[in-house]
């Protein structure tokens, strides 16, 4: 049985995480964060790497100078699961 959230479940879950958006494919969620400086972006990514290791659930991270995009999906399940929503919350807690 798949833990992938249905469209309605995902939309409901993201009401608590307004900074996150659903990708066009519907198979991942993402958040873009802009920092004032490159070093701030890297510090944030390092902090998130630590919590991702603890949770054994890793976001895809794209760094473009001071702009960082975090993408979450559960690859084994082929979509967004409760584990992704939980990681989004942990990322939000560090950033906000």
From TrEMBL:
The keyword Lyase applies. The keyword Coiled coil does not apply. Its EC number is 4.2.1.96. CDD domains: PCD_DCoH (cd00488). Pfam families: Pterin_4a. GO terms for biological process: tetrahydrobiopterin biosynthetic process. InterPro entries: PCD_sf, Pterin_deHydtase. GO terms for molecular function: 4-alpha-hydroxytetrahydrobiopterin dehydratase activity. Keywords: Lyase. It catalyses: (4aS,6R)-4a-hydroxy-L-erythro-5,6,7,8-tetrahydrobiopterin = (6R)-L-erythro-6,7-dihydrobiopterin + H2O. Belongs to the pterin-4-alpha-carbinolamine dehydratase family. This is Putative pterin-4-alpha-carbinolamine dehydratase. It comes from Roseibacillus ishigakijimensis. The lineage of its organism: Bacteria, Pseudomonadati, Verrucomicrobiota, Verrucomicrobiia, Verrucomicrobiales.
